[in-house]
Amino acid sequence: MSEAAHRACWHTTDALGEAPAATPRCTRISSRHLDSRVLLIVGLIAAASPNLTRAQGDCEVETRAAEVRAFIDAVAGGIETLQIPEDIHDLPQPRLPGGEIDPLYEITEARVELGRLLFHDPTFTVLTGFPETELTGSCATCHFVEAGFRAGQAQCFGVGGRRFLDESGTSVREPIPSLWAIDEGPTGDFNGDAVDNPAIVSPSINMVAYFDELLWNGAARQETPEESPPVERQARNAFGAHRLDDTAFEQVPEYVPLFEEAFPELADEPVEVLIDMFQIIRAISAYERTVVSNHAPWDAFLAGDDFALTCEELDGAELFWGEAGCSVCHGGPALGSTTYHALGVAEHAGLPDGEHDLGRFDVTSDPADQYKFRAMTVRNLKGTGPFFHGGSADTVEDVVRYKNAAVTDQKIDNLSPLFVPLGLSEQQILDLTAFLSDGLNDPDMERFSADSLPSGLCVPNDDLPSRYDAGCELFGDFDEDGDVDLIDYGHFQRCFNSQQANVGEPCAPMDRDGDEDVDLDDYAAFRSAFNASPG
Fold this sequence. Notes:
The protein has helices at residues 36-48, 61-76, 109-120, 230-241, 256-262, 271-274, 277-289, 297-302, 311-321, 361-364, 396-405, 426-439, 464-470, 486-498, 520-532, and strands at 6-10, 25-29, 55-56, 59-60, 161-165, 171-175, 213-214, 220-221, 340-341, 373-374. By secondary structure, the chain is mainly alpha-helical. The longest helix is centred in the N-terminal third of the chain and has 16 residues, at 61-76. It is built from 15 helices and ten strands.
């Protein structure tokens, strides 16, 4: 059982064995202190005692929840101001000057579903100029659900990367080996023109609907009413930054009806008009706005559930909104802001020698903004590190301890006046960490992922090791035994020698590029699959 506290719910019953008027009551009991036998006993006692207030240590959670709720209600100007709606149509959307929703960027179910697929599809990663990198990554490569829509590592290798297992067995990404500089191998430099590798921790798309400036430095913003909204602007910038091909989806006929449903006003237009960059951006942005982690214990607490948070987490929530001062920068429903602060954290290890990430200064050119970075959302941080823009903190507790000590990693001249020692005790550090890690953790983020794609490519990466990991159908596995082995090699060689794919079914599956012969391009694809085979 993980360190995350165990949640147990039960229906209390009265003396006649009938359920009382109250709805199911839940308590959250830490598995650090109770094993399954104790949990069973607690459940039996609770069933026999309908009016029991569940205590955790010296804390009566029901009473404590009421105290903390009243405190936060006063500080935040109303508990209801912190709640996130369930209905996607009630989420923040771009609006016209008169206040009505802008129909160009309106959230619709069809646009959201199309955007979900496009976000996870490697189809448009084909403009790299290096054949071995094509189709190897998608938006979700560096913003995937298991890492809280972050990358799960300090530097994400998107297009031009491949999956590999590190020494601990964790699946991470590295540049494709053939892209390392000649004679330098994996300890030298890789070809930066071929590998998508920004030297900054990938920001999460979680909660982007709530911010009018995005990225660590706030560069994605809408400066005039005529410009695209922030989410769309960032999506547009991604096409250039990550060398995406906006025409690639035109070649996938299965996408046509999906675009027609999402943008019915364009249904009669040619495919190159229906499926163009503007529609792709609008669909992806609609999807990204719906990615909100609103199924956390914190959300249940805000809705009135007195047993959603443990007493430890309740104490942490009170610190967050009170003594620790976290909510000054991480407030509102998204628990983040568009304020910028210089905290003296270490720079990213991937920056070239002599270069510095100056943060907000790169947007404003104001010397006072050097090394200032945005206060990102603190929702869904559990297990999604590293943190800070340079990846210098591995865990949530590391972040709390850094802010509590207020000792910088590097000396800067414009340190934020808010960055001062907090004076938290060891227990308070653990309480605040518990709230940030467990209380704000939505365990159901898989609802935003995609299971399969119209293109038939693997979700979210189509490099060969990733395909093996995900169990996707493999080009070259002609005997369908889950491996590209010598038997498959013999099949391919016979078709390659004939240079024909239109001689019947035996060779047709080996014509990967669809040009009706089995040629050197197909041979290169097969060799890659054969070499990557775990067998």
